[in-house]
Amino acid sequence: MLMHQLLYDGAARNPDKIAFRWVDRDRTLTFSQAAVEMEHFAGALHQLGVRKGDRVTIFAHNGMDYLLGLFACWRIGAIAALVNIRFADELDYYFADHEPSVVIYTHDMAEPVKRAAASVKTIRALVCMDGPQPGAESLPALLSAKLMPPPDPADESAIAHLSYTSGTTGKPKGACLMHEPTMRAANCIAERLRITGDDVSFGPTALSSSYQLVGNLLPPLHRGVTVNVMGRWTQSSGWDALDKTASTILVANPTLLAELLLESRTRGRMPQRLRLTVSGGAPVPPTLKRALRDEWKMPLAESYGQSELGGFMALGDPVLASDEKFGAAGRPLPDKEVRILDADGTECPIGEVGEVCLRGGFMECYWGKPDKTAEALRGGWLHSGDAGSMDRDGYITMRGRFAELIKVDGRTWFPRDVEEALCTQDGVKEAAVVALPDNKLGQRPVAYITTTNGAVDLAKLKQAIVPLVTYDLAPLTIKSVAAFPMTPTGKIAKAELRQSALAEG
Length: 505
Known about the structure:
Layout: H1 5-13, E1 18-22, E2 27-30, H2 31-47, E3 55-59, H3 64-75, E4 79-82, H4 91-98, E5 102-105, H5 110-117, E6 125-128, E7 137-138, H6 139-144, E8 159-164, E9 174-178, H7 179-192, E10 200-203, H8 210-222, E11 226-229, H9 235-244, E12 249-252, H10 254-267, E13 276-279, H11 286-296, E14 300-304, E15 314-315, E16 337-341, E17 354-359, E18 365-366, H12 370-376, E19 382-390, E20 396-401, E21 406-408, E22 411-413, H13 415-423, E23 428-438, E24 442-451, H14 458-465, E25 477-480, H15 494-504
Parallel strand pairs: 1-11, 3-4, 3-5, 4-8, 5-6, 6-7, 10-11, 10-12, 12-13, 13-14, 24-25
Antiparallel strand pairs: 1-2, 8-9, 9-18, 14-15, 16-17, 17-19, 19-20, 21-22, 23-24
């Protein structure tokens, strides 16, 4: 199945039902309207010279034109290449990497776009979403012409979506996702989450992340569900929007879920129709999981995935988690085979930690990086680089990135063990552990925390978690920070944190 077919199907089955709502502007499109607007947008791209296989960069805030731009690219067989606006200073890298034919952007991004585009010969046109600008086409003017696109290439095996990795272990790589396996994954995700036509989905995180694609866009649309996107979430405005739109599913990250929890405590209730929260981008602290479950009886389906998938390695069920499975991310989905392999590629025994690997339904390649592709897909498996284990029921428990494991005086530390222990303590909001070089120990662990209510006694905090972990915590230093640097997907940016720690000495 093709990704853009979802709008045609919605227009045929429920033409007057709202397909998209841009919450910030309270702008909506029905399925029939969205299908027509997609056609006009696709016609405009074709008029600008975009052809099958060309890359179209979208560099913009969340909004209706962003959504239509995605579907328009897929409609004419182009590749939607998405770059988060937080990377304005590195835009030249992204343009040089995927060599776009057209760049679509919001007016406030004009300066970095034009600066980066100046040296890229493949770019035929810049298109401003907000009207005419010097050196750029006006998207409203292009759409008003109501140009029709050429016949649909209808190639399920074609690359449709180029989603960049977070770049935690080097320069970001463009993962190339194809129509058919991504749509197959979307159907499986919709089944796991028990999405029906009565649901309303809400996604406030960046559309540039593949998490939005496989969480808030394709699975709900597969069931003819209204999709809400929001560009400027705050704790209060986000709660209000969830309530006003009568959303039943929130697809977010742990930071936003924590804000939902805090706001619900203030107001004395959850948003009116919310039945399910879905989390991705980073591990969910056990304290947050427990609070949603025990205080509000709110199911949390934790997802574990990567940009390379077009789906998830594992996904929780839309029910209250049992104590037995509380620490697990969930089970693999039926479109993918997930195994825990050792360094030799042999499957690990049940419960033993190894690398989480997957067969079936992953990316075709990293754009323009055959060596990196071969490394990631060696032996026919997608190698995640993540340490994890699987129990007898197939539930996967994550232990962290292999690249982030710490070797302290000959013993391997899993940072997540310490981070989760810290998050169980009163006053601790978030925690992250990084390693610094040490002549005696090899590596020295440093834990950073943010707090919920001001200062925390760090010496007492360290003593309190001693019984909760199996490591000798004598070498551990704990520091408090006002806020963590974050990646666009909601992960704590540990590379930046480590650089700060090195600078501090």
